[in-house]
Amino acid sequence: MIRLLFLLCLFWAAPAAAQVGAPVETGHATTRLIAARQGGAPGETIDLAVYQRLDPGWHVYWQNPGDSGLPLSLDWSLPDGFEASEPLYPLPHRLSLGTLVNYGHEDEAVFVVPLSLAEDAEPGRTVPLSVEASWLICSDICIPESATLTLDLPITDAPAPPERRYGGLIEEARAVHRPAGSIAARYADDGTGPVLILPPDLEAPEFFPYEANLVEPAGRHEVTDGDGETRIALDPGFAYLDAPPESLDGLLVTGSDDRRVGTPISAARTGEALSVAPPALTSDVSARRGRTPGLGAILMLAFLGGLVLNVMPCVFPIVFLKASQLARAAQADRTALRREAGLYTAGVLVSFAVMAGLLFALRAGGAAVGWGFHLQNPVVIGLFAVLIFLIGLNLLGAFEVGTSVQGRGQSLAERGGDLGAFFTGVLAVLVAAPCIGPFLGVPVGVALTQPAALGVSVFLAIGLGLALPYLLISLLPGLARSLPRPGPWMTTLRQLFAFAMFATLVWLAWVLSVQAGPNGVLTLGIALVLAGLAGWAFGRGQAVGGRAFRIVAAAALLLAIVPIVRLSAADAAPRSSEAGSVLDAAPYDEAVLSSLRERGTPVFVDFTAAWCVTCQVNKQTVLNRDAVVAAFEASGTRYMVADWTVPDPVITAALERQGRSGVPLYLYYAPGADAPRILPQMLSVNGVVAVLEGRES
Prior knowledge:
By secondary structure, the chain is an alpha+beta fold.
């Protein structure tokens, strides 16, 4: 009798075991393939599931992973006539990692997969099912994992009963998904991004878009109730900014804890006017942050911006000569070449880290400063002008400090000194500083809204981009050898580059004239004469020898610096917001701006500075063009200039409200609009005219 009972137990247990695949343990997850029923009838559709138990602290990703991550991938091997549908993902959670937000699952995850059986499947047989599953599992680090999951499914004459161990688990996983369309939804744009409009009294609603980059996961997710509806204000992602969709599709999750349910919604776009976001003058940085990419994209943008610095007019002569020196070194000692490039890169990165650290420290102390704050100081502009002038004299051959142009540090580097190689990187950053703002406004603006550690990483990415050409030359000797060999042509080209430095000097002198007026320019002129004397004396000392020339050079250089460092804000002349502008310009005034907007007058605000190269190019090539001036007059648009040439806490605060930390910034306030339109940093005549004429929304 006991033996008979034992055989009966085996009989009943065997079908259940057949519908549960063997568990596969990977590094941080245990995964198996399971079925909701003990078998399947021909032509029937049953639920399978990929069931994962995750180690504590680890997570996998939803179908739209958010700011980073990868969803589950399934590659099925099935008998003929069998077909597996796309998986139904578990309800996602928001998982924060620093400034990033991902959508994913923790602890355990049940991915339900409907399986359609072949019409001609033969009852009484068992068919093997197999799937190659791969996923990304993350904690502090991310690890790709994969497994081959198998299951033997009996074919039955009629629908089989539920699988006793895991059937309920699959049923629960499906039950939390409500039918599509059971919640009415629509969306509109409030001027800063999409706003979902839903029925009232929803418990803890969360929206998860199906399409990546449509909504910024780390942006705003502001839920408000009132007037018989619930609204969720979201920040737009790249895909939305490129082309707002006709419908906003995703999963609306409501409820909390074990009462969470998900409803697919397709919110059609409406043209209704919303006033959800506060006016632009009081808008919060977080409301603008969604217009910027995630951290990975910001770092890439910063890196590319640093690379662009290598071809800026005030930097290119230096980087050319540095590359030439490395090319010469490549013909000799490959180890020394790599060491020098590495130390040069270290000098660049340390300099950016120090500058960024100083900026964050000043902001933490309450100073209203942004990137470019050092260029608002006439002392810094004057010292840069003297440095650029001396570099130009060196390029012309008035004196030598090694075969490159970056000062005494480069001379040390020429003799193989590690300190010299490091110091050349420091000087490269100092020379690049006046050129950095116009090309890196977005990543720097985002960096200054982040914690200091993440912000500094953006500046380090800029430095890595600046140093990249030298790293490539040091790591790829063939690249260095492909460069033209040193010869007389380099002397001619070097002298030509001196005039690029003098052009930069003219620009700096003009900036100083705006900051410190005629007296400031006179002070700079005296300093340049003394610096020229220092350069000549130093060169004569090299040519004929003698200590006296070096003493004269040192004294003249000291006398050149003294009047520059005595420039102060008290010497600053009144600024003219109309300088160089054909348009009838009014100085930036928030009270006037608010009054104009209340009257329905369109307003164009130009955040600019004399030391901003891009600002001046846009003014001369776009804003001063006849077609643009005519468009301003025809549309009745008022032109306001927010001049940031010298420190101005009101303008700094206005920039920060738009999520920016530097200039240029161009805002257009259309009549009746709740928020301004942000124009590109590089303007075009057609683009500005189209905005003023209302041909672009």
